[in-house]
Amino acid sequence: MREKILTFIEKNSRVDLKELAIVLGVDEATVANEMAAMEEEHIICGYHTLIDWEKTSIEKVNALIEVRVTPQRGRGFDSVAERIYNYPEVNAVYLISGGYDLLVTLEGKTLREVAQFVSDKLSTLDPVLSTKTNFILKKYKDHGTIIAEPEEDERMLVTL
Amino acid sequence: MRNPLSERIVDIPFSGIRKFFDIAAEMTDVISLGVGEPDFDTPWHIRDEGIYSLERGKTAYTSNAGLKELKIEIAKYLERRFQVSYDYNTEMMVTVGGSEAIDMAMRAMLDPGDEVLIPQPSYVSYVPCATLANGTPVIINLKEENEFRLTAEELEAAITPKTKLLVLPFPNNPTGAIMERKDLEAIAEVVKKHDLYVLSDEIYAELSYLEDHVTIASLPGMKERTVLINGFSKSYSMTGWRLGYACAPKIILEQMLKIHQYAIMCAPSTSQYAAVEAVRNGDHDVAAMREEYDGRRRYLMHRFQEMGLQCFEPYGAFYAFPSIQEFGITSDEFATRFLKEKKVVVVPGTAFGECGEGFLRISYAYSLDKLKVALDRMEEFVTELRAQKK
């Protein structure tokens, strides 16, 4: 049941509970209770909207920053990750295997704003050894969804 | 000037579905619940195998009966899913969709005067294919009170000394009816008693929501009198690839192969390479699509119930077949007015046989968002019709 709800709302968090209950073949209260429980347990961490900002007049710059850090005694990477994710302009922080330690995704209004964050805030943290900033030029697919005009239904006249 | 046409062909009418699409083509903001085709793209890993086969230059004919590799996989699949075993080498051939298999089976089995029992409402091709094969189609009208299943009594009543073949189209297009094991066991007894053959069209076998589909070929003594037809269109959402298959006793299959050899040569090779991947690694795609359809089915039935529209519960395929008899107008009139007044395409039940009068075929191979809008419009329309009747 939980897996079905999660699979469904991952694609469409706007679905109304009654409709979801019908589709899953259970009653509305069951769905509501499961969802409340999953929010409580932090399995459902939020309900977000996928937006193609390029189609709006709002200017945004997105960056992926590879960060090498020195892990801290007793807390490994957690304390430095916490320092970083608490900045409001940071969207995501991942601990990564491979050539660097943390991947930080960042959103700023301008290139200058992102550059300032990296040089003033991120690079100056004691455990940070180095940063490498990659700017996102275009989003083709995000959160499993292809960022493009939805295609028309091309099914043609068939007698099936 | 001589008439260039064959009267036999001229006498066969076009499918009744066409008219509605012609009207819809002239309108804007039309929502269709009319197409009997999955709305999913073919899963990427299957498409990718098709592309890869082209990259490797696998563009030649395959053998007439189909790619050996594919037939072996199909045999494993039928064993795994439906507990029926076929020798890929002598009892199976790959066809251009299930449609070609239906046509060939009829042509291989029928002589002039042979009667073919065709339960209706059902897919529009069976009657014309029987006619094209010089057979005589005999219709069995299925009843809503039996959930549009074929009963042994109905079958027995339709049999004459000329009856040779029974078409068994379940899960059914357009009604969504299925046949459970107990139903098939009763049918099988009658078939054996009267020494008939069965053309079992199982194209919707993977879309069965009540229990796993049972093929009549798996029942005792039935494999030797059954032509099992299936394909990739519905289960793997591969309609445009045009790929199906037929499994039959060697004696029948050999004759079908002869027709296929002269008329078609072989099914498209790209489609066959893609299908190998589908049948080998596509079970989870099939399960995911089935679950999605099942959710839409529940939603559709709930909405019918809310608007007070009578509909028996369909347990297969992706169609519902609600009754509109309460409105006192024909299916054709309902569908035409619904399209013109509310801009929604549905198909009148009569497109699938005269006994479909008083019913509509609603396809739920559409996203929930589309279904929702279409059903809101249907609710308005039904309310208006009821008000006009008072």
Detailed description of the structure:
The complex is a heterodimer of chains A (160) and B (390). Chain A is an alpha+beta fold and 160 residues long. Chain A is built from five helices and six strands. In chain A, a hairpin with a 2-residue loop joins strand 5 and strand 6 (145-146). Chain A is globular and about 60 Å long. With 390 residues, chain B is an alpha/beta fold. In chain B, helix 4 (68-82) runs parallel beside helix 10 (269-281) and helix 11 (283-306) packs parallel to helix 13 (368-389). Chain B starts with 6 loop residues before the first helix and ends with a helix. The mean pLDDT of chain B is 95. At the A-B interface, helix 2 of A face helix 11 of B.
Figure out the total of helices of chain A: 5
Radius of gyration of chain B: 21 Å
The most extensive interface, with participating residues per chain, is: A-B, 13 and 24 residues
> Strand sequence of the main sheet of chain B, in spatial order?
2-8-7-6-5-3-4
Structural class per helix/strand content of chain A?
A: alpha+beta
Could you spell the SSE succession of chain A in H and E letters? Answer: HHHEHEEHEEE
Residue ranges of chain B: pLDDT <50 for 5 or more in a row? none
Element order, helices and strands of chain B?
HHEHHEHEHEHEHEEEHHHEHEEEH
Strand content of chain B: 5-15%
- The CA-CA distance between the termini of chain A, in Å, is 34 Å
By DSSP, the count of extended strands of chain B is: 12
Task: Summarize this structure briefly.
The complex is a heterodimer of chains A (160) and B (390). Chain A is α+β, with helices and mostly antiparallel strands and 160 residues long.
Provide key terms for this protein.
heterodimer, A: 160 residues, 4-stranded antiparallel sheet, two-stranded antiparallel ribbon, B: 390 residues, alpha/beta, 7-stranded mixed sheet, 3-stranded antiparallel sheet, 42% helix, 13% strand, globular
